[in-house]
Amino acid sequence: MAPPTSTVQPPSASQPQEAMMAMLSQIAQMVHQSHREIMDLKQETAELKIANASLERQVRDGLAYNIYNSRSGTPGFMTPAPPSPQLRPKLSPFLNHSIPTITTSAPEHTHYRPSPLSDHSLTAFPFVSRDIPGFYVVIPAGGAGTRLWPLSREGHPKFLLDLTLKGRSLIQATWDRLLPLTSSSRTTIVAGPSHVKSIMDQLPDLLGENLFCEPGPKDSMAAIGLAAAILASRDPEAVIGSFAADHMISGDDAFLSAVAEAVEVARKNYLVTIGIAPSHPSTGFGYIRLGEKINMKEAPNARLVSNFKEKPDARTAASYIATGNYRWNAGMFVTKAVVLLDLLHDYKPEMAEGLRKIAAAWDNEQEREKVLSEVWPELEKIPIDNAVAEPAAAEGRVAVVPATFGWDDVGDFSSLADLLPAEANQPRILGDPHLVLTEQVAGGIVVPGSGRLITCLGVDDLVIVDMPDTLLVTTRARSQEVKRIVKKAREAGFKNLL
Q1: pLDDT digit string, tens, across residues 80-96
Q2: Where are the domains of the chain?
Q3: CATH topology of domain 79-411
Q4: Which of 442 and 336 is assigned the larger pLDDT?
Q5: DSSP three-state, residue 436
Q6: Which residues lie below 8 Å from residue 317, measured CB to CB, with a gap of 6+?
Q7: Rounded to whole angstroms, how far apart are CA atoms 93 and 431?
Q8: The pTM is what?
């Protein structure tokens, strides 16, 4: 009997192929899983580095606070010159997270999208830096802070003082606040010759070429215009933001978001200001009347400026606030450098021509001094508001970004007192609290700058500033009038104390 014929078929050519494809698919899945695990590990490592840097900064800040507030430390007004941030991460007390590590150069392509927090702020992705390419910071550092005399002097004005007892002067705090949006290479300061050394001591990361020395005070238009002219010659596409050196700001994240939004509007050839939500009907600040919305996707809060209002009386200020259509004018301006120069050419052509002439000679030190000596004395002394902002607003060329951060120009001892901590009904003390003894005293501010004991009995809301060479006694209600006593001291021949 013949053996049965086998029914087993030889393996087809497709079977090894299918097995190979299955094996390759499995390998690809393993590689993908491994890649994802590596990316997760990198992300955890990056987050850990940021957390460690934040913790180190908190420890440093805590040590610095203990040093500067101990009896053996210096009082607040004798600000030491601690090192500048050196591009380290900066923690904000107003955030629930740290600002990521600051980079000195921006990525080649940066994209912005609405914030996931739905707060109309802008965030960059996929990069961790908040750097805005092409954005230059201008910090005008001028004035003598007359209303804070004798704490603030012409040779050592308020922007060089630590008025918050945190170990950083106002100009250092301004530098810290703005650095995440730019870099030290794009941060510039305009100052007078008598303040150059002190500024360089307090800001060692400031590049010498970015400190523009004006021969004499000519108000904000000449100072900001000088920076705009120089920066426009260096980078014709530069967007500049001008921020005073001596203002106080709380709410760093809201501030940075407002500036980022203002930059987007400025790229559309507007002169942009940032409007502060008024907390009370102040008679010491100018006001901005909000106009129509601009309807820019990148800047959803931006509106045209209807007009600028000078410092009003109390009743007018109250009526402004009641409408909800007014904001404080903090003197913050963001625009393209060339746009500012064009506006200046339209409204103040002689000043525009003079500043362009100075900028053309700026890189040649010998030629610069010659041109400055010829041109600068002839420039008009005028604020930027009067020179370009007000006439440009009338033509619809000025925008405003309403902001929510806290702001104060620390204009007198009354506003300074509000910024300092104190027990209920006790005076604020700027300096060593062990040098001040009080009994039945409420409110006020005491500055024990001479090192001797100050005692107060049964007096309320006094301002006492005791310096080694002079003593000021007034009330908080009259602190805005300190400049009158400064004028009288000048007329009486006490210029050495001013």
Answers
A1: 344 333 333 333 333 33
A2: 29-68, 79-411, 417-497
A3: Spore Coat Polysaccharide Biosynthesis Protein SpsA; Chain A (3.90.550)
A4: 336
A5: strand
A6: 281, 282, 283, 287
A7: 22
A8: 0.73
